[in-house]
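$ fold --in a.seq
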Amino acid sequence: MTGKREGHSGRFEGKTAIVTGAGSGIGKATAMKLASEGAKVALFDLLDERTEQTAEEINALFAGAARAFDVDVSDPQRVEQAVTEAAEQFDRIDIVFANAGINGKLAPVDELSYEEWEKTLNINLTGTFLTVKYTVPYLKKQGGSIIITSSINGNDKFSGFGMSAYSATKAGQVAFAKMIALELARYRIRVNAISPGAIATNIDKSTEKSKELEDIIIPVEYPEGSQPLEGGPGKPEHVADLVAFLASDESIHITGARVVIDGAESLL
């Protein structure tokens, strides 16, 4: 592979990673991180300018290391097809970062429509299931690592008012990760979940707040901010470093874990 940066560690040399939600934020930062350490990366996202730009940025540094795939993770046919094409192009799948997700509609439970509830569950929870379902047959060939992006919401923090659907999916992802960690351990496939707090990404663009939301909010104010460690939201690169660790042999005996990365936000 050409175009390696000076000091390239090669930690993932010869390995292939699938990253969902790869067009921006945590997904993009992780794709860049894995590619910088030798991995070939299949970028799964809705194919738009952001996703194509991510592929171009990676390939400019590491020729042929990345390809963008047009994927809606809630659509089983599109996920299965993209996984098949990625495996055919890159020969193998070793790392799966199930990261795609939305905040969805924020509303009181009696105002949240079935359609909005279903949309959030389909993308966040069913999307995680589909990503895992179709990649596991390839991971079984040599073992590998699955990392799932959950959240402190629904696991450590419950003051995200109106986020009942989102929080339910994030708690569900952790239970799913633990179940399949045990199921897949005999195949040397490790499964871990990460729970970020506030991270500077564009996920808020997927958020729609109902006018009734103000009726259920209980004000909680932290004058000095709610992320004590950094004094503000974390960076996508912070999460990318954690994902790379969980994808690597440095975490070879870690599976079924949930790692919080929130700058002490959930401890307040």
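$ fold --in b.seq
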Amino acid sequence: MFSVRGRGVARAAATILVSGLVAAGAIATAGPALADDGGAGTGGVTAKLGRVTEGDSVEIVENAGTPQEKKWPVGGGLFTMQVDGGGTLQTYCIDLRTGAKRDYTYKEVGWSESSLHNNDNAGKILWILENAYPKFSAEALGKKLDVDLSKNEAAAGTQAAIWTFSDNVKATPKSADAAKLTEYLLKEAVKLEEPKASLALSPATVAGKAGDKLGPITVTTNADKAKVTVASGAPAGVKVVDKDGKAVTDAKNGDEVYFDVPAGTADGTAELTAEATTKVSLGRAFVSIDGPSQTLILAGSSDSTVTAKASASWAKKGAVPAVTVAKDCAKGGLEVIASNAGDEDWTFDLKGTSYTIPAGGTKTITVPVAEDEAYKFTITGPNGFEETFEGVLDCKTATPGPKPSETPSTTPSATPSTPSTTGGTTGDTTGGTTGTTGTTTTGGGDLAETGSSNATPMIAGIAAALVVVGGGAVFFLRKKKAAGQ
């Protein structure tokens, strides 16, 4: 963890990983370019992880045919998630060696903000989601393959195919019929383009002077349109407009909107809210915002309510700052995009280094962050400007561990199990459960921990450490001014 005010220290996990984090990063003058679907924290669905409702046992083989070959069984299946504001989601795991924590809250993100950012097979995973269960019923898939597939088998067969591409392992369902589904999906898969965000605004903050249009802010959505309003508490006369100054109440994908602040308005701030009801696109990634938990990918969605927010600040004279932080997994860190729409220089401190943004200027500060490292920093400016960003960088799937026989006696506080072979409801993370034969289920847990067990190689050494220090947490970016995003 780091703080531009010097009020934080690195998490214990970072003591091992932080050696590469020795500089604040290169600075380059640039325009406010962000990820295609907006900077993290500017929108997207949030949902709470439930249990795996359908699934079965899958055998994992790592480094097949080599002296380093390892085998272990895990439970593979389909998660359910409850969307904040209404709606349900269904997801699969794309981070095999990290356990999933039931009741953790997850946030929708683009591939660039997840372990898929450098995965050449991400588009094939999307094809699987578009052509397997639950997009198509178990019955329909069974007829296609001339087998008798149950829902549990269809879910396990789909998950096994996804793990092959997400974690670079050989994954084979226990059921022969499910294994035929996996084989078919792997053989036929082709690359598809990344899906659009459900709803996002980019950039998250803009600045300027009263009498001007402040923006533009680009709307990205897969909905037909999003309702756009000025949040309550804004000064009188502030409204949302298009580039021609016409009032805007609805916006489509790709539209640009602006804050219209009347001339003479006292120095201040305002916020706009965009809202839509839509189905989240298959293939969108979901990362935990509550702590260590595996990354998921969307396999199905009901109509869900989604919101996004952006803010503006203005002043008559002096510096008028704006800051947006975007996660950049390709660069292994964060991009802090700081701009100054005022008529005086703005100087702020970031990670012990002072930066000056000239009047009318914009700079992009690249901040390296080690994988699984927690960070927190606050950037301050004139007129009470203060933005706090915090989270944990999680851009990679968990790395392989030693063979199961090398597993130490210490195991994580919550371990996964596999679904019942009868398809019944599994237990929760507080009580022991009995899973499918061949999979260890000690320590309590249910299929909401799919992809990790106390027989899984990741547990040796690193798992015990993860329990203590909370390493392996997923990235989340949250701004004080946009509480609840």
